[in-house]
Design brief:
This protein is α/β, with parallel strands linked by helices. Helices cover 28% and strands 26% of the residues. It has one domain (2-228): 3-Layer(aba) Sandwich (Rossmann fold). The model has no long low-confidence stretch (mean pLDDT 97).
């Protein structure tokens, strides 16, 4: 099984269905820096790195000092074109480590939505074969510019940069495909105010939940399978 270092930045944002779809294929070792757990000094001995989401912002390292350590680890990965998958905050950290600007967006995306895949996504190792538009779950207010040399894989009307590849093996996804019914219920409870401030009724996100999560699950399977093959 592949040994994957997984940085979980907040308890309520785990791998979700990504872990379910990789059962028997990968050994995910979680590190929880927000709880004071130290990140390894290097990626030696690991075969991949996944950086998950969280409510903190890349530019808030004064409030969350562990973000600097995550950026350093991602910098090492970029230098070696080491396989990395960043989700939401993780994608923003990859963009920042790649030298791009991360900043507050003009609008907040919260809940179910879609992204359009780029032409480059059609032959991509992770995105090839996925439908466009691609149904996703969103929960963010920040966005980013693409790092130099990055390939844009997905976008929408709100934000052009929703997914990208840097080098051959480093991927950033602003959106969430790892959603499960259990996670959705937790997020609606925990992020209720954040969602409501986006002029969205939190409880509406739980409608047709099982069917929506099942659609996401096929995308999660394709993405995590492709990542583990890098």
């Amino acid at each position: 099984m592949k040994k994957i270092l997984t940085i979980q930045n907040i308890a309520c944002e785990p791998l979700g269905s990504l872990a379910d779809e990789a059962s028997g294929l990968a050994d995910f070792t979680y590190v929880h820096p927000e709880k004071g757990e130290a990140l390894p000094a290097s990626l030696a001995g690991w075969e991949g790195l996944i950086v998950l989401g969280g409510p903190m912002a890349v530019y808030e390292s004064d409030r969350h000092p562990f973000l600097a350590a995550e950026l350093e680890l991602i910098n090492q990965a970029i230098s070696a074109d080491f396989p990395v998958l960043g989700i939401c905050l993780g994608s923003q950290l990859i963009a920042a480590a790649g030298g791009a600007r991360v900043y507050a967006g003009e609008t907040r995306e919260a809940g179910w939505g879609e992204v359009l895949l780029s032409d480059a996504a059609e032959t991509d190792e992770l995105f090839g074969g996925l439908p466009s538009p691609l149904p996703v779950f969103q929960l963010h207010g920040d966005t980013f510019d693409l790092p130099a040399g990055a390939v844009r894989l997905a976008g929408n009307d709100a934000y052009a940069n929703q997914a990208f590849r840097l080098g051959r093996n480093i991927y950033g996804l602003q959106f969430h495909v790892e959603m499960t019914a259990e996670l959705a219920a937790r997020w609606v409870r925990i992020y209720r105010t954040y969602i409501a401030e986006a002029s969205i009724e939190p409880e509406n996100l739980l409608e047709d939940l099982e069917a929506r999560c099942q659609v996401l699950r096929s995308a999660a399977k394709r993405i995590i399978s492709g990542f583990l093959e890098l």
